[in-house]
Design goal:
The structure is a homodimer of 234-residue chains.
Chain A (H helix, E strand, L loop, with lengths): L21 H20 L3 E2 L1 H8 L3 H9 L5 E2 L3 E3 H12 L5 E6 L3 H8 L1 H4 L3 E8 L8 E2 L2 E5 L3 H8 L3 E4 L3 H13 L4 E4 L12 E4 L2 H16 L11
Parallel strand pairs in A: 4-5, 4-8, 5-7, 8-9, 9-10
Antiparallel strand pairs in A: 1-3, 2-3, 6-7
Helix pairs in contact in A: 1-2, 1-4, 2-3
The structure holds a DNA duplex (22 and 22 nucleotides).
Chain lengths: 234, 234
Amino acid sequence: MTVTPVQIPDQPAAEPARQLPPATVSRLTLYLRTLNGLLAEGVDQVSSESLAESAGVGSANVRKDLSYLGSYGTRGVGYEVANLSRKIAQALGLTHEWRVAIVGAGNLGRALARYAGFETRGFDVVALLDADQMVIGNEIGWLRVSDVAELEPVLEKTRANMVVLALPAGVAQSVCDRVVTAGVHSILSFAPVALSVPDFVNLRKVDMATELQILAYHAQRLQVPGLEEDRPSA
Amino acid sequence: MTVTPVQIPDQPAAEPARQLPPATVSRLTLYLRTLNGLLAEGVDQVSSESLAESAGVGSANVRKDLSYLGSYGTRGVGYEVANLSRKIAQALGLTHEWRVAIVGAGNLGRALARYAGFETRGFDVVALLDADQMVIGNEIGWLRVSDVAELEPVLEKTRANMVVLALPAGVAQSVCDRVVTAGVHSILSFAPVALSVPDFVNLRKVDMATELQILAYHAQRLQVPGLEEDRPSA
DNA sequence: GCTTGTGAATAGGTTCACAGCT
DNA sequence: AGCTGTGAACCTATTCACAAGC
């Protein structure tokens, strides 16, 4: 038994091998951030150990992650910052221009629209949409808020290829469906619901309430070793 | 071989067994959300299958997760919504009152301060702090912005037991250190850096740039089946 | 008959430890 | 001597499949 795990017998494997493990992909973004910092500081070599430290993971983990991209390190020395940064950016698809439309111009949507972090990392916010007539037409950051009724033409005109949903739970699914139908298949949702999408759509979720609840779980576990549950206190 | 995995030979196991798997904890928050919705609709029984559907996971997964809390389902019938909701809330530590201080009143911090989702889920935003003199003293939502120089007394006065960091990368570590020293050990960070904290601190990260980059990776993989790598274009 | 609860099987991820190269 | 690259071991998580109970 113990079959060799090769499953794709027709790819000639000229490229560094597609399909990185998901856990690796998310760590690569962290390494990239560190590398770009080092690049700005003029550092040009880095070890797996120090990359590990600034990403908060183990160094073996870093080396294994990087090995999926190929062998770009030098034994006894480390990795060349500029080269590695380029390779990771390439692997992550950051050589494309990504045009992001944000649907929902409530508190969160507006905050995201003004968030400088996107622009600097190759993500261009090209539209901001809302359903509220009071908000439509307002200037937020560099953008004017469009009517979500115009979603499809706006996506097409701006050639958006990613959408961020910053919407209340109730309307998220229907807007999501329209986004998918309009041909945008990469969606980041901040809505506190599970959205259902076809397999070919990339959907990621960020859920603040969930994060706080997870913290609550751990906090409670530490605070209550067995006694006192809700000390009313003075 | 095949040792039984019992590792805590001194706990009498009166409680439903502490230490849930992390993956289970995050899904429990999703089930809880669904259950509270059903509760509001007056539904009183639910199957693992329909819980699974609304959380976007498999039903065996749901049953295994719930089994860590004990056997609260009825075979052939399902789970009693009110009861299960209560059990999960209990397991997650949501019977406590959680008092959250938000540090950073920029776009994101303000959006979080006004985000209604927190209040309704047992998280009370009790303070909002910033370093910018232009912002200190402003009213945002129900709160007046405090000076981050006053962090320690504010945390103490408001008895905050969680902190949300909505800060730029540069200052996040130093504020984080002060928060920990001040005795708050549950931290949710939106800052795009890896923060280092002692082991006893619960730190979670939400990173929007990372999420978009992960989307970019998947999007690029689908869009480029093998050709054109960086087409210089017009 | 229908749905839970759970051991067994499988898949995925991390850590170890060391050979291989500079 | 130092650091990478990687098989092997280990641990965590998901899925399967079915017996147990209503």
